[in-house]
Amino acid sequence: MNPTRGYDEMRHAWGSVAPVSIHPGVTAWLVLDHQAALEVIWNEHPFSSDARCWNAVTDAGLPADAPLLAMLGWRPAVSRLSMDEHRRHRQAVTGVLEQIDLRRLRLLVQLRADGLIDHWAQRTSADLVTEYSRPLVWAVFAHLVGFSPASAPALEALVIAITDTADDATDADAELLEAVRRLLQTRIAAPGPDLASWMAHATTLTDTEIAHNLVQLLLYGARSTVDWIGNALRLLLSDSHVNALVATGRLTPADVLERTLMADPPVPNIPGRWATKDLMLAGHPIRAGDLLIPCLAAANTDPAIHGGGGAARTSNRAHLSWGTGAHGCPAKDLARLIAETAVDAALRRLPEPRPVHSGSARAAQRSMWSSGPAELPVEFARATPAHRTEVPHDLPTVMVVPESTRTVPAQEGEASQRWGWWNSLTGW
Q1: Cα 27 from chain centroid?
Q2: What is the CA radius of gyration of the chain?
Q3: pTM of the predicted structure, to 2 decimals
Q4: Is the predicted pLDDT of residue 22 greater than 80, yes or no?
Q5: Would you list the DSSP string of 192-230?
Q6: Other C-beta atoms within 10 Å of 377: how many?
Q7: Nearest to residue 139, comparing CAs of 222, 17, 34, 247?
Q8: What is d(CA 20, CA 11) in angstroms, rounded to the nearest whole number?
Q9: Residue 332 in contact with residue 322, Cβ under 8 Å?
Q10: Interatomic CA distance for residues 272 and 29, integer angstroms
Q11: What is the C-alpha to C-alpha distance for residues 109 and 188, in angstroms, rounded to an integer?
């Protein structure tokens, strides 16, 4: 079913807010309209990001191993906290992200993008998701956090299990957290030019808080950036009007990515707000502890904000894809730079790409928390050469090594002694 049509039908039946079932015996309110979603996202007093007040847990006894808790359950991290605790975490996270040298990050993404394109350019066909956006983004995020390049596929598999709320989502979440904790312990002892080291040595967050914030960066940052790039490339391949505007220089890759955020956001729903008291929202009685899910995909296509015109063809920047207010995405500049560089490299190097329509190809991957093409096979004329003479043997780092101001001791007993795939990787 066309998602926009489905949202319109829900609005017709329920108005701005619709009751939905997200798990056997667990209901939520799906917030459909732009104004109502903005109210829920912006106003943290009646709409908390802290799941500890969720009545499905406190009253209905939702099992602790329910797969949806990997995304919706409480954790001590910036997007799952409210008020003063949220502000303490956000200040630490944004302060560390500001240490990234964006010029060097752009160079890193360009080199990795060119390297991937060089690998398959001569055969004049490729899958722009499985052979480009996914390996590109995951390699970059692994590098940023401090993991070795070889760890990227395993990190991606864990994140997909969590964000798709697969049956093993709880186990995947525990494994990802343990991997980050082990990385953190190595960086406490020997800091490097990465986010884990900066979080450990330049903030006053506890080790547990640091680990959960790094997990959330992978959960919310990496996969959404993959899907954002995929959605933008799919728009270019499927919309001749947009393609023509890019070809004539009237649209830039940044413009295309902005249109994609409006028409087909990579994060279709925000993972939860909880009512802190009984209240009315758009005429619906909401009980304290109820879960509300702001539906960004529906809010962005609300006819009230673009006059009924096609969202894919508008430059309207009223979308909520970055969130807003105190809980706006702290890493949006990072994600935007990676996505713009990746799309620009594909446009620059792949002349006249044409989609390959295969009966076996999966058009899109859609879960409650992520939306993007699972595959994007294309054919093209022979790729143009990269604007460089050679790839450096050592890829650039994007941060300096922090000087330690660590005042919080490592918390003994928190990291499990179980060894896994991450212990055998080089570069740790």
Answers
A1: 24
A2: 22
A3: 0.90
A4: yes
A5: -SSHHHHHHHH----HHHHHHHHHHHIIIIIHHHHHHHH
A6: 18
A7: 222
A8: 13
A9: yes
A10: 10
A11: 27
